[in-house]
Amino acid sequence: MAEPVVLRDLLRENHWQKYQTFQREYDKAAASIDSSLVGTAPSRAQLHRWQCGELKGLPHPQHCEVLEAMFPGRKAAEMFVPAQRSPPPSTADLAAAVGDGLDGVAPVPSPWSTPVRREARPAGSLPANTLRGPAEDQAESLARSLQLLGKRLRIGDEEVAELALLAGHLVDLELECTIDIEPDGWSAITYRFELLNLTDAPIKRLLREQWFENTEGVRIEPHSDGDRRVTVQRLHDIGNMTKFACVLSPPIEPGAVGTVSYTSRGGRFLHDHYWQQSTPRNTRHLTLTIRHRGVEMLVGCTAVEDQPDGSQVSAIDDLFCVEDDNGALITLTRDYLQPGQSVTIRWEVARGGS
Predict the structure, then answer these.
(1) More confident residue, 89 or 167
(2) Taking the mean position of all CA atoms in its chain, how far away is CA 290?
(3) Which DSSP symbol is given to 134?
(4) Contact at 8 Å (CB) between 167 and 198?
(5) Do 226 and 130 share a structural domain?
(6) Which of 165, 249, 306, 328 sits in a 20 to 30 Å window from 117, CA-based?
């Protein structure tokens, strides 16, 4: 059975595990060797196989050369041997990290975000036997909830530890946006948020807003499931934008996961075909799906991701476009996004008989 290799750990130690970050660092190293190697990074799927130990032997020599430039002092052969497995974090370790997060202190930067340090304690200054009082009980309760979540959703121990560093925040484990556009341009946009509450208080309301370039008024239809009722409270209607709150009953308790879903109607896609999806919270997985009906073919389709520093990177490797009997189908997936980031899809279509 294939096992994760040392390369995976090296990428995580340097916070290069996001594919676009890996590409950037790969190209930097490649440029220091030979400019012709820039742009020759492995595909996302290929990099995944490398890290999981599914590769027989070593990569192509040019890949090995670049990898050795990325990690000076390491030979490529050393990077493709099985990594030593670390024991899973204990409840006490997770509780310490959660406690720091609730206090606004992050002892180790998270791959998702780097919270502002505030009166940081020296590493190891919070042994398990010093936990006392309601705040510490809350931290331990959240830590146990994270352990159970990891087992239920099959989230690895390392990622559970990374989630603990986001304590004090609401996290989108899954953010799904599905846009269904009719031949005349009118649309229905369905959102589904799978929310993990890592705060110390119940989440009763989720603030949202919806904007359309062309609209005759936005209608919001909440979706309730058997466990939770969702109602919509309109706050402001300003021109093409509406601001509203999803009111949750019962609320999402600390350490719990809850699903919030609703559909927006009233937006129309006429001439400019694009969609920008922002991530208001740390987002583990984002899936953006666009079904454009009544079109003969896709003339073009592009996708970019806005970085926290304001720069943009191509998201074309995570973009899937296809035409079928119903029109055009576009799907974009991205992982581990920070608050304030966004992805933008632009597409051009040709209509039958045009």
Answers:
(1) 167
(2) 18
(3) H
(4) yes
(5) no
(6) 306
Q: 344 and 288 in contact (C-beta within 8 Å)?
A: no
Mean pLDDT estimate for the chain: 86
CA distance 189 to 178: 6
**Given 164, 189, 221, which residue is the final one in a domain?**
164
Question: Based on the domain organization, do 47 and 130 belong to the same domain?
Answer: no
Instruction: Please answer whether residues 20 and 11 qualify as being in contact, where contact means their C-beta atoms are separated by less than 8 angstroms.
Output: no
CA distance 248 to 232: 9
Q: Is the same domain home to 230 and 341? A: yes
Final residue of a structural domain among 36, 56, 79: 79
pTM above 0.85, yes or no: no
User: Looking up tokens 């846009």, which residue turns up?
Assistant: 179
Tokens 């556009």 locate to: 181
Q: What share of the chain is helix, strand, coil (3-state, %, to 5)?
A: 25, 40, 35
At 295, list the tokens: 């079109």
Model confidence pLDDT, tens digit, residues 21-69: 898 899 999 999 999 999 999 988 889 889 888 888 899 999 999 999 9
| Predicted pLDDT of residue 112 | 57
**Cα–Cα distance, 32 to 52 (Å, whole number):** 27
- Range(s) of the domain holding residue 124: 91-164
Helix (H, G, I), strand (E, B) or coil at 231: strand
Lowest mean pLDDT among 70-74, 122-126, 345-349: 122-126
**222 and 158 assigned to the same domain:** no
* Percentage of the chain lying above the pLDDT 90 cut: 51
- Taking only the tens place, the pLDDT of each residue in 180-201 is 999 999 999 999 999 999 999 9
Asked if the structure places residue 85 within a domain, the reply is no
